[in-house]
Amino acid sequence: MTNKSHYNSGLRKLVQQRRDCIEHSTAVHVEDFEKTYHALYTQDAVEFLKILPNSSVQLVLIDPPYNLELETWDKFANYLEWAKQWIDELYRVMSDNANCVIFGGFQFQDLKQGDILEVLHYTRHNTKLRLINLIVWYYKNGMSAHRYFANRHEEAIWLSKTKKYYFNLDAVRVPYDEESKRAALRDKRLIAANIEKGKNPTNVWEIGRLNGNSSERVGHPTQKPKEVIRRFVRALSYEGAVVLDFFAGSGTTGAVCIEENRHSILVDSDSSLKEYFNKHLQKLDTTKGKPFEVLEQIRITEYLNKVRTK
Ligand SMILES: C[S@@+](CC[C@H](N)C(=O)[O-])C[C@H]1O[C@@H](n2cnc3c(N)ncnc32)[C@H](O)[C@@H]1O
């Protein structure tokens, strides 16, 4: 039986457009700019969102508490009631081509309510946000278990505000190994130039978690690897875009934004964000990124004026 996935009309149109060198309608042309700005706030996420103007960010990238009771900030009487407060603000603060990534995990040990599935269900049924992908972040290192299968994945949901969301696949393609590259080049349905650029990383990402002595570590208990954040930042935002992380933790998102020439807004209720972020700054890859400026507790309207002024 024919594999129908190759006969998807939308996909065929996109492939033809690429062959004809026609730009996709969501392409963005970035004007040159001198430096990036990174604003830090010690504030509750919901309070911060309420003062953020409409359509002010192009990527929201958040790693909220997972409701696993790992830390004092990770305990909730009713997780979803709490999460609804920030979910309800997302659509408003996103620009029309914006994306939103929410990390999470599944509750698999007891009857406690609230996890990424409930966040996804609420978002789909109660907001205008559109689900684009559910990404499975798979890793080989983790805790063992005796009464259930040891967990080796976390999830991230990718939502957009409209159909005109920004997506740059070329920025995150992964190289083919020699054998699969030869096979791909023989496949007439594929574009040779794209094969040279690499393949789609798919929605299952194998990236190691940070172990205790990783050189990336800055001391935050739930720090995410830069590689995971970088893939989202590169694919779902463009240079000069404003990226918001209102559960910033150590500020990993901001560190990646500096290296990738995006502006960032980092918010955390814990004032240790500042110290952790300084440690990230000491470890930055200095071969990457434009000059940058870190601003603390700046008025949000002043910050947005700065990033809009080239
Ligand atoms: C999972 S961690 C984020 C870690 C981050 N991705 C990193 O790589 O460092 C979640 C963060 O949310 C913060 N947090 C919890 N409740 C918050 C709230 N209501 N408002 C703002 N931040 C909050 C916690 O202090 C914690 O640092």
Number of helices: 10
Architecture (CATH level 2) name: 3-Layer(aba) Sandwich
Q: What would you call the structural class?
A: alpha/beta
Bound molecules: S-adenosylmethionine
The order of strands across the largest sheet is: 6-4-5-3-2-7-8-1-9
Integer count of domains: 1
| Biggest beta sheet attributes | 9 strands, mixed
- The overall strand count is 9
What is the CATH T-level topology? Answer: Rossmann fold
CATH homologous superfamily heading: Vaccinia Virus protein VP39
List the uncertain runs.
none
The radius of gyration over CA amounts to 20 Å
Mean pLDDT: 92
Shape: globular
Structural overview:
It is built from 10 helices and 9 strands. The chain is an alpha/beta fold. It has a single domain, classed as Rossmann fold. It is globular. It starts with 8 loop residues before the first helix and ends with a helix. Helices cover 31% and strands 19% of the residues. The longest helix is centred in the first third of the chain and has 15 residues, at 79-93. Helix 3 (79-93) packs across helix 4 (116-126). A 9-stranded mixed beta sheet has the order 6-4-5-3-2-7-8-1-9, with helices on both faces. Bound molecules: S-adenosylmethionine.
